[in-house]
Amino acid sequence: MIHNAQLIKQGAEAKVYLAPFCQRQAIIKERFAKAYRHPTLDKKLTSRRVIQEARCLNRCQKAFIDTPTVYLVDVDSSLIYMEFIEGCSVRDYLTTDDGHLPEAQAKVAKEIGTALGKMHNIDVVHGDLTTSNLMMRKESGSLVLIDFGLSYVSNLIEDKAVDLYVLERAFTSTHPNTEVMFAQILEAYGQNSKASKLILKKLEDVRMRGRKRSMLG
Fold first, then answer.
1. Which residues on neighbouring strands pair with residue 134, listed in sequence order?
2. Is-contact 152 125, C-beta < 8 A?
3. What is the end-to-end Cα distance of the chain in Å, rounded?
4. Nearest to 193 by CA among 106, 130, 124, 119
5. Could you tell me the pLDDT band of residue 210, with boundaries at 50, 70 and 90?
6. In the structure, what pLDDT confidence band is assigned to residue 59 with cuts at 50, 70 and 90?
7. H helices within the chain, ranges in order?
8. pLDDT (average), residues 69-78
């Protein structure tokens, strides 16, 4: 039991709490056991995921990519204590009236594309890029990448293209009429990713496979 913790989100892999830590509000992410797995195997896999998430976050921070700062990693309890980001998600932003201003959207798109390009340059693949996992800080409005629960390190062009495809699908399904904004994201990505030509070419292949799967049902 986490002392004075408020449960704010529960997903398939983890519970997320808001709780005081070292005289500040912090996010505490707790990965829980999977009953269908052998306890020893489950503990090993869960520990690996906790370490991997914390390492990916630290890798991004070292590359000056805005992500939540990791305060503490408790592998035995499957807990990560990290910075609480005060602000709104890009998802919420795009569903407000302000989110529909072309100039404002272009600025956000540029920040998203820039951040993703830099992230892929250091071989971090997010694994769950949605507009809910892109935050805008309340004070500065700057972009923060959050929720690295499915992240991993890979230098494969395919993995990075799939990362972009997942975000594109999130835009298409959640935010109608944002094709221009996503094109702006890819433009900024192209300017910041060292392997952008190869990755964006591979993205076309991934899209084709996605369309074939949709047609086949």
1. 145
2. yes
3. 44
4. 119
5. confident
6. very high
7. 39-62, 90-94, 102-121, 157-174, 179-192, 196-216
8. 96
Which residue, among 61, 2, 62, has the nearest Cα to 29 in the 3D structure? Answer: 2
Q: Quick one: DSSP state of residue 22?
A: T
What gap in Å lies between CA 162 and CA 165, rounded to an integer? Answer: 5
Q: What is the dotted CATH code of the domain comprising 87-216? A: 1.10.510.10
| Residues near 155 by beta carbon (within 8 Å), at least 6 away in sequence | 123
- CATH homologous superfamily of domain 6-83? Phosphorylase Kinase; domain 1 (3.30.200.20)
Residue 91: name the closest of 126, 132, 136 by CA.
132
Intervals of CATH 1.10.510.10 along the chain: 87-216
Residue of 128, 159, 163, 205 marked active site? 128
pLDDT 10s digits, 190-203: 999 999 999 999 99
128 is catalytic: yes
Domain with CATH 3.30.200.20 in the chain: 6-83
